[in-house]
Each structure stands twice: as structure tokens, then as C-alpha cells.
Amino acid sequence: MPAPFSDGEVTVAVVRQLNVGDVYQDWIDGVQQQADELGIKLDVYNADGDNAKQALYMEQAVASKPDGILIGWGFGDSLAPGLKLAEDAGIPVVSYYVQVEPSENVLAMDQGDDLMMKEILAQMLDHTGEDADIIYCYVPGYQALDNRDVEYQSFLSEHSGLNQVAQIGVVSSNTAAETADQAKAALTANPNVTAIVAPWDEFAKGAVLAVEELGLQDKVKVYGIDISTADIAVMTKDGSPWVVTGTTDHVNVGQVSMRTMALKIADQVDGNVLSIPPAIITQDQLRAASIQNMDQLIAEVPDLFTPDLMRAPWMAK
User: Fold this and answer.
1) Which one of 195, 274, 288, 290 is most buried, counting C-beta atoms within 10 A?
2) Is pLDDT above 80 for 259?
3) How many Å separate Cα 223 from the centre of its chain?
């Protein structure tokens, strides 16, 4: 085993901006599972969506002198002072969906956002045709959503018959419910809408609530990103308008994040950018295989599980 793993206990600070929702719980579960396997002690700081709190926690994490810092979501501007402190202290950083430039000290991770967005939009086009009114869920400033928005804007420019009648979305501790209220208002004001592009599962769940409450399941379909056991239940229930999602398995992503952190600590990583390969999951696929949870989905779509990605031989139990 490489140093410092050969020298005793290794400690990693996990500084999370977002921690409420299925995706974030799955991710930290995967982080913890892999840390346990590697004998890594975790100190977890949850900012509850508060950027100022995350910035403070980042500085506190550096002051605790861990072997590495893993950041889950966040804004580069607010984290910049803490990132500079980490660099000065020689503490390596792995960031997952943080708006920060990769560097020698910071390895940046994400999913294949362009691939996911491109595919769900292609499937939407098959349903709506070239001339349709659509609603778009988006809040700027979040790296994952910004990455997906680049592909969305390109898609709109290539299909001029698609008419975005409203942009909705909110990021909060109650995103789904607040997005549902916005979606109901937008659907009521725009009765010709046939699709809602919701590139985050909390957005998608809110859109589904709105469509169902207005009784528009046969007319309006939802195109999402991300999946969890709870999302599978929403997609597969009778009459659900959520018909496709682009995704990775965030338990797996959490595991990859921690293995990447371990390799970064051991100075065994070449490069500073890592993108997790995604898959496209359809409602028909879930129903045909009677899939009810993530374990069953991974058995059906094994590419969601990448146990060999960022794994070194010394990591074997």
C-alpha cells in the first residue's frame, strides 16, 4: 500500500453543499461504503444548501488537516478562499459538480451531462415533433444544470419550431413541491404544452406532481435526469408522465469519488478531470423488466456499476 495508507489511518473531510434528496443521500452512502472498505475515516460537513456555510466548513476542513478533501456540489466563488488554503497546505481536493477550474491540486468530477441531455431531448422530439410548446426547468449557477443547459440551448437553436413558453425551477430544501407550484401555474397559463424538460430528478418529481394534479398525464410528458429507488417508483406508477431519464447510479458515483480521492492522496492520478459515463433509462424499460429498485436496475443495466473505474490493485480488501 502507498503512503499515507501504509502509515496508519487516513482521514478525508467531505464538504457538501447539497445534502437533501435521493441523489445526495445515495452519493454519500457510496462515499461512506468505499471509505469503510479502504479504512478511511470521514469527517462530513453538511451545508444544507447554504453557500456561506459551505465556505466556512471548507476553511474548517482545511484547519483540521485531513489527508484529503472531497467536495460534493458547490460554487467556485464561495469556495475559492478555502481551496487556496487547501492548496497552500498541500491538501489534495476532489470536487464533484463544483464550479472550479481543475488544477494540479484539484481534480474535478462530473457526469456525461451533454450525453444525457442530448438523448432525453431526442426522445422528447420523437414525442412532440418539431412544433411544440415546452416548459424548461433550470436554475443558473449550478455546474450540473449549467452543463446541461449548454446542450439544451444548442438543441433549441437547431429546432426552431420548439417554443419554450416558460422557464421554471427553484433549488431549496423543498425543490419538488416548489417546482410543482411553478409548473402548475405555467401549465395553466400555457394549455398547449406537451413536454416538460426537467434535467434534475427533484425538478422532474415536481413536474410530475403538477401534471398529475391537473390531470394532464395523457398530454404532457416529463423528460428528466437522475434516478433513485424513489424515482423508479414515480416513473413506473400507472399514468406517470415521466417517460425517460438520463442517469448514473449515485451510490456508484460516490464510490468512484472516494476511490479517486484515495488515489489523489496517494499521488497516483494522472490528469485532473473525470466524467462518469451515464445511461439512458426509459419508463417502458423499467416496466418491462418489473424494476422496482436500484439493485434491480443495475442488474438490468450493469454499465451503471463501474467497480473498476479509478481502482488500484492495492485497494483490494
Assistant:
1) 195
2) yes
3) 15
